[in-house]
Amino acid sequence: MRDNGTKNILLVGVGGQGTILASKILSEGLLRRGYDVKMSEIHGMSQRGGSVSTHVRYGEKVASPVVPEGCADVLVAFEKAEAARWLHYLKKDGALVVNDFEIYSLPVLTGAAEYPEGIIERLKEKVQKIKCVDAARLAEELGNIRAQNVVLLGALVKALGLEGPDWKSVIKETVPAKLLDLNLKAFDAGLSQ
Q1: How far is CA 3 from CA 6, 50, 53, 71, in A?
Q2: Where would I find the Pyruvate/ketoisovalerate oxidoreductase catalytic domain in this sequence (predicted)?
Q3: Residue 7 belongs to what H/E stretch?
Q4: How many domains does the chain have?
């Protein structure tokens, strides 16, 4: 289900984690590298901590913005339970970049459900190319946990083999000036993973 060598990336997380901002930086960076890029956002009660997914497809000529199930070259999960929830989108030899981070849903917080145990271990049994990143810890060490999205973006860029100076200029043009230094450091932290 690929057209003209199109690459498929799915970014998933929980509302408020910065999934969409990371996707916008990714899309702009890919456009500047000369790719045709299509992006589609899906918000599922994102303001209340619900699932958020962003499909990014790039290549010579991209027809649709939606990544078909089983066709994602890379799945980036901003929260580990979301990795398990969206894993069926990853193709057999695809790569998984997963944030080793937990966000508890309302049923878990109220005691009506339990957060699943051993998610990372189960993911490692199913996916050969997996990169676990403690993006929240890295972002906190830099001064703000909210920068974990840009840490994960750096890890994704490395996984795609698309390192280069263009990314920092896109970040400079996208994030507020007061958060620029933090986000540039967060991107570098992700690249080093």
Answers
A1: 5, 31, 22, 11
A2: 15-191
A3: strand 7-14
A4: 1
Q: Token pair for residue 138? A: 């890295």
Q: Quick check: is 144 in a domain? A: yes
- Single-letter residue type at 193: Q
Six token digits for residue 97 = 């970049």
Tokens matching residue 110: 């109220």
In order along its 193 residues, the chain shows pLDDT tens digits of: 344 689 999 999 998 899 999 999 999 999 999 999 999 987 655 455 678 899 999 999 999 999 999 999 999 999 999 999 999 999 999 999 999 999 998 888 999 999 999 999 999 999 999 999 999 999 999 999 999 999 999 999 999 999 877 899 999 999 999 999 999 999 999 999 9
Report which of 51, 67, 58, 63 is spatially closest to residue 10, judged by C-alpha positions: 67
What's the CATH number where 117 sits?
A: 3.40.920.10
Q: How many CB atoms lie within 10 A of CB 155?
A: 25
Domain range for 75 is 7-191
Residue 159's nearest CA partner among 7, 3, 2, 1 is: 7
Q: Is 92 left (phi over 0), alpha (psi -120 to 50) or beta?
A: alpha
- Per DSSP, the residues of 84-104 read HHHGGGEEEEEEEEEE-----
Percent of the chain that is helix, strand, coil (3-state, to 5): 45, 25, 30
